[in-house]
Amino acid sequence: MGAILLVHKYESINCFENYEPRYVFSNPDLGLDVWQFSALSAIKIAQYMGCTKLVFVCFDSMNGDYTHFEKESKPQEINDRLMANYKLQKDRQISALKNIKHKYITPTKNDLENI
Q: What letter would DSSP give residue 115?
């Protein structure tokens, strides 16, 4: 038996469709609202797994206040709503991580060239 694949019902249900064993979940299964960003799902799953420290890689929205969307990709009204929700998510993540050791790593260009 291989490792259990965690599959988010609304974000990745079609990924690795034939892989077994798999566990399909949604945010309400984790005690979260269905519309919460996946970062909060990941934090909850890590807590359930007993993780005592989390490392976020390339997490620009938390490490440098990079919280914008491509303006050309959506009408401005939708972008405005997404931005408001995105900024709220940052506050929610800070709250969820309050008692958990964590850090953010953003690789430099040099790091990426030496992979």
A: -
